[in-house]
Amino acid sequence: MTFRKMYSLVSAVYAHVLWRGQIFSIFAAATNDDPVLFPTSYVTAPKHVNNQVEVSESIFFAEIANCESDIAFFAARHDADTRQWLLKDFDKWFSDPGDSRAYVLLGYPGVGKSVMAGVLAQRWRKAGHLGAAYFCRHNDSTRNDPRCLLGTIASQLCECSSQYNSIVGGESGIRKLLSNSNLGVQELFTKLLQEPLHNLCATLPRES
Asked: Which of 47, 82, 146, 172 is deepest in the core (most CB within 10 A)?
């Protein structure tokens, strides 16, 4: 299995992963109760209290979430006789994405977007192509914080690639970056995903 064949399926928030030597974005629509999207440019703004700056504690204590239960929960709710067209369409895109850097799944609340995201994550993990998965929930601090998103994806990518793990310093290196109050979400994205994946890409042989 090569690192180029790993993907991140992200619900409600987009992230970039390496595939075929390029940075790709994969985006899966949010669950029914997820009204807010956090782009990578999102930065937590400080609050001014009595002329002093107060910074949200979430900046210092972003958790690394375990999304295995999310994948199992949603995948178990899929009727195997439905949405076959989506699975075939995704397989086709995966094999030949062309100029498309993202697979975007849109739909009204309750139509099964998260269920299919769970199914795709489960299928592609079994095939050895899943890099990371993250599902958002607006009422769960481990599922609605963009710092948590980045840390979770980075942690899962460490399990997929020993080279990536070495570059970011493993989970301890990830937590060190997450706890750095001087780093906003954009900076964390750069240090946890963009730069490590670019450096890793440079070490891989080019595909003919």
From this structure: 146
Measured CA to CA, the distance from residue 92 to residue 84 in angstroms comes to 12
C-alpha span between 24 and 9 (Å, rounded): 11
Tokens of residue 73, six digits: 């929960």
- Report the distance separating Cα 24 and Cα 100, nearest Å: 9
Domain residue spans in the chain? 3-203
Could you tell me the two tokens for 147?
């710092």
8 Å CB contact between 14 and 25: yes
Count of beta carbons in the 10 Å neighbourhood of residue 168: 21
Structure tokens at 133: 């998965």
pLDDT tens by residue, 128-160: 889 999 998 888 888 889 999 999 999 999 998
Residues 84, 92: contact at Cβ < 8 Å? no
- 150-190 pLDDT, tens per residue? 999 999 999 989 999 999 999 999 999 999 999 999 999 99
For the four alpha carbons of 93, 95, 98 and 99, in that order, the dihedral sign comes to: positive
Amino acid at position 10, single letter:
V
Which tokens is 148 given? 């948590």
User: How does pLDDT run across 77-130, given as a tens digit for each residue?
Assistant: 999 999 999 999 999 998 898 888 888 899 898 899 999 999 999 999 999 889
